[in-house]
Amino acid sequence: MPESKYMLEINDVYKTFNPGTVNEKRALNSLSLKLKEGDFVTVIGSNGAGKSTALNAIAGVWPIDAGSIVIDGQDVTGLPEYKRAGYLGRVFQDPMNGTAATMEIQENLALALRRGQRRGLRRGITKKEQEQYRDLLRTLDLGLEDRMTTKVGLLSGGQRQALTLLMATLKRPKLLLLDEHTAALDPKTAEKVLDTTDAMIRDNHLTAFMVTHNMKDAIAHGNRLIMMNEGRIILDIAGEEKKHLSMQDLLDKFAQLSGNSITNDSVLLA
After folding, report:
1. Higher pLDDT, 254 or 163
2. Each residue of 169-224: pLDDT tens digit?
3. d(Cα 60, Cα 80) in Å, to the nearest integer?
4. CA proximity to 228, closest of 30, 46, 66, 13
5. Paired residues of 68 in beta bridges
6. Rounded to whole angstroms, what are the CA distances from 231 to 50, 70, 86?
7. What pLDDT score does 219 carry?
8. pLDDT at residue 167 above 90?
């Protein structure tokens, strides 16, 4: 049988910050991970485990020291962040990131849809486009379809994060990166945004990489869970095994695999 095609391949990646100084920190230590198309992996680990560093390595925020990163068969290891943007959709922890606060909802959607296209001086948003945006916003079930001329800066954190999700997935990215995107929200709003995340990933058959501190969310969402410690993956669970996981199971496995005990709160609140 031919080898399965992977949407993301992280191959033996290393990253050390402040090398040769008293603040030297090896953040990624021979990190390797492969995601098939449609995989939705949740990534957990204690503070400093390398979760966000791995996500930033994929996004090209800074160069890695060794190894390679391949997205949908394309080696992007040497590409800077702006050149990788065409492959990726990204939602940040801060709801203020990812949108233009002083622009209208419909203007933000227009920017997202036209990303990568040549921008001329033609007239603004057409009536046909407005109808398209209204239909897209209706899927969020937040009433934003009736507020398309509202400035995004006036939205609540949850509304803004849901809009950012919509914008990040409009062009069907090869890979959706979710960087603790519900951490700044209250529990009820976070649950709503996660439900929206699930629907968007499922309906668009996206491949997603979600960093979270919340073990409950990591267990409840996605088809695969990985746990990181000291810059490498120490646990990779998928399928039926993941469905039957409990939070205590994860705590026990971490203690067993890392040689350290970890408290529930240190994962949830770190």
Report:
1. 163
2. 988 999 999 999 999 899 999 999 999 999 999 999 999 999 998 999 999 999 99
3. 6
4. 46
5. 11
6. 5, 19, 27
7. 94
8. yes
Angle at CA of residue 41, ends 137 and 200, nearest 5° = 15
Question: What contacts 217, CB < 8 A, 6 or more positions away?
Answer: 42, 182, 190, 194
Q: Does residue 71 surpass a pLDDT of 50? A: yes
Can you give the pLDDT at residue 12? 97
Instruction: Give the span between the Cα atoms of 235 and 248, in whole angstroms.
Output: 14
In this model, does residue 259 exceed pLDDT 90? no
Q: Is 149 exposed, middle or buried (0-12, 13-18, 19+ CB in 10 A)?
A: exposed
**Side-chain half-sphere CA neighbours of 173 within 13 A:** 29
DSSP the chain: -PPPPEEEEEEEEEEEESTTSTT-EEEEEEEEEEEETT-EEEEE-STTSSHHHHHHHHHTSS--SEEEEEETTEE-TT--HHHHTTTEEEE-SSTTSSS-TTSBHHHHHHHHHTTTS---S--S--HHHHHHHHHHHHTTTSSGGG-TTSBGGGS-HHHHHHHHHHHHHTT--SEEEEESTTTTS-HHHHHHHHHHHHHHHHHHT--EEEE-S-HHHHHHSSSEEEEEETTEEEEEEEHHHHHT--HHHHHHHHHHHHSS---HHHHHH-
Dig out the tokens for 78 from the structure: 């040497």
User: Do 51 and 77 form a contact (C-beta atoms < 8 A)?
Assistant: no
Cβ-contact 262, 230 below 8 angstroms: no
Angle at the Cα of 43 (from 65 to 11), degrees rounded to 5? 35
Q: Which two tokens stand for residue 226?
A: 């990985």
Which single residue is written with the structure tokens 């995340």? 197
